[in-house]
Design brief:
Layout: H1 2-41, E1 44-48, H2 53-64, E2 70-74, H3 80-86, E3 92-96, H4 98-107, E4 112-117, E5 119-121, E6 124-126, E7 141-145, H5 148-160, E8 165-166, E9 179-181, E10 187-191, H6 196-199, E11 205-208, H7 210-216, E12 226-227, E13 238-242, H8 245-248, H9 250-265, H10 267-276, E14 282-284
Membrane topology: Lipid-anchor
Organism: Acinetobacter rongchengensis
Subcellular location: Membrane
């Protein structure tokens, strides 16, 4: 009888040990799953245009050292980033300046707002065919962006070059109908903003952006026939979020602001900007 009781007790102990191991394994599994889920939920996803990728990736790598996880998603056009952000599929985007955002909000029911400011870049007039603006002939084909905001910016630069005259010389939303004088009878060709960089190969004169030119490798961005003289922050690129982002995602919003601070202050990011854009072609929009 004693031997039977001993066997029974040992079996019970063995069952408890196995049960304990199972419980510990389950708890450990749940803990790991929760941590993995928490980690995944804390990834900040930012939609960007490809030309901004390299300096931003440097900031991503710097942020990771501080426990801030950021994922960059590239978009090839200037419409999808706002659509995707408004749907809530990404946390923020970084590709547009305030005039572009204001125009987008006017034309849609999007609920978006700037959270912080990034860099501003100069824009220029470029040509592979002519070495000076004076050499650009009559009836030249001149490429400008087709969206209202960047077209206005292009026309202001052509006016600065004294190639056209605008009805209101200070209107940053001028369009082709606002041209009151076109002495050389230029033929204007409207294309999507990112495509201006590739148009340099064919057109006589092109308004474009150093970032896109460097990405397209069509012409050295430093070889502009004229750069804009505008150093205000109107055209600084913005980190944009949904209106209620800070209320719905306070922790992620805090980490996003910390990431932006890294982008604004890191020496490594500054070096990347100098290398990728050109030290004389960009300036901080937050100062």
């Amino acid at each position: 009888m004693t031997q039977t009781n001993s066997i029974t007790n040992n079996a019970s102990k063995h069952k408890f040990i196995i049960l304990g191991i199972v419980i510990i394994a389950v708890i450990a599994g749940l803990f790991y799953w929760n941590q993995h889920k928490k980690s995944a939920s804390e990834i900040i996803t930012i939609g960007i245009s490809p030309p901004f990728a390299k300096p931003l990736q440097v900031a991503v790598d710097e942020a990771k050292k501080q426990g801030i996880n950021v994922k960059l998603v590239e978009f090839s056009d200037w419409n999808t980033p706002n659509i995707t952000l408004n749907h809530g599929d990404i946390d923020a985007n970084y590709f547009q300046h305030q005039p572009f955002l204001s125009n987008a909000l006017k034309e849609t029911d999007f609920k978006l707002k700037p959270l912080n400011v990034g860099v501003a870049t100069h824009v220029g007039l470029y040509s592979k065919k002519y070495d000076s603006l004076d050499a650009v002939p009559e009836h030249a084909r001149v490429v400008i962006p087709n969206d209202p905001v960047n077209q206005g910016r292009a026309l202001l630069l052509l006016q600065q070059a004294k190639l056209i005259t605008l009805k209101d010389p200070n209107n940053h939303l001028s369009n082709l109908q606002d041209i009151t004088a076109n002495p050389k009878n230029f033929k204007f060709i409207e294309v999507e903003g990112p495509q201006t960089a590739r148009a340099v190969d064919d057109a006589d004169l092109v308004f474009s952006y150093p970032l896109y030119l460097r990405l397209a490798k069509t012409i050295d961005p430093n070889k502009a026939l004229l750069l804009d003289d505008n150093t205000n922050t109107r055209y600084a690129i913005l980190f944009v979020v949904k209106d209620d982002y800070e209320q719905k995602h306070p922790e992620k919003a805090k980490h996003l602001q910390e990431f932006i601070k890294i982008y604004q202050t890191s020496d490594k990011v500054k070096q990347a900007l100098n290398s990728d854009i050109g030290a004389n072609l960009w300036f901080p929009g937050w100062k």
